[in-house]
Amino acid sequence: MKRYFLWGVSTMIPCCPSRQILLGPATLLALFYFLVPVLLPAGCDGGTRQRVLCKYVIDGDTIILSDGRRVRYQGINAPEIPHDGQPGEPFGLRAKEVNRRLVQGKFIDIEISRNQPLDRYNRVIAHVFLRNGKHVGEMLVRAGLAMACTYGKQDRYSKRLLAAQRSAISRKAGIWGLPPDRPEDYYIGNSRSLRFHRPWCKNGRQTSMKNRVIFKSRLKAFKEGYCPCRACRP
């Protein structure tokens, strides 16, 4: 058994009794990357980062990896694209196209939270990063092509996503340049779930008084990090 040292780490290489095998640092480094899965430092919530290859982009917040896993971007919600006979939402196709240019066919880093690794559709819930460290979800939110949605499950990136959303709102970028659909006099927010509702929505009216927050406009709710109810769609 021969012992080699690489950057202060001792490496043992089995040798044939009749001959010695000499491996240089470059060869050892190549073997390291080939044999060891690429796992990056964990996030503050104990999540694990992995370097993966994006095979295909489904829409503005969902992708398919080369190993077949589907990844749903954590902390954001992009407009729907046309599917199943539905027309889709404004900027849905634009969000998909920008997402495709950013990640499709490229190596990216995903950070999977241990708190919610999978959703009900068996998709991996993860923050996604480019190789240069840029947060893809944050880029989409800042461009007005997605909204920040934590649904009450805040993490280390929630404040960054909300800051990006406030910037997009102030610039009327993307979806924030559209007029509100059937605006109400006020909206009911739930401080526990971080969702907000139209005043007549059953889900909003059932919100307990201790968790109830009243917003005078949709934008005020969005600026505070609340996400729209999926039922009444405020």
Name the descriptors.
234 residues; alpha+beta; OB fold (Dihydrolipoamide Acetyltransferase, E2P); 3 domains; five-stranded mixed barrel; four-stranded mixed sheet; 14 strands; 23% helix
Structure write-up:
This protein has 234 residues and is α+β, with helices and mostly antiparallel strands. The chain has three domains: 2-36, no CATH class; 48-176, OB fold (Dihydrolipoamide Acetyltransferase, E2P); 181-228. Helix content is 23%, strand content 25%. It contains six helices and 14 strands. A five-stranded mixed β-barrel has the order 4-5-6-9-8. The N and C termini lie far apart (69 Å). 32% of the residues are buried.
- State which percent range the strand residues make up: 25-35%
CATH topology of the largest domain: OB fold (Dihydrolipoamide Acetyltransferase, E2P)
Q: Roughly how many Å is the radius of gyration?
A: 23 Å
Biggest sheet, open or closed, and with what strands and sense? 5 strands, mixed, barrel
Structural class: alpha+beta
State the shape.
globular
Helix percent reads 10-25%
CATH class of the largest domain: Mainly Beta
Number of domains: 3
What low-confidence regions span 5 or more consecutive residues with pLDDT below 50? 2-21, 27-37
Q: Please write the string of helix (H) and strand (E) elements.
A: EEHEEEEEHEEHEHEEHEHE
Name given to the CATH architecture of the largest domain: Beta Barrel
Number of helices: 6
Compute the average pLDDT: 85
Placed side by side, the strands forming the largest sheet appear as: 4-5-6-9-8
Number of strands: 14
Report the span from N to C terminus.
69 Å
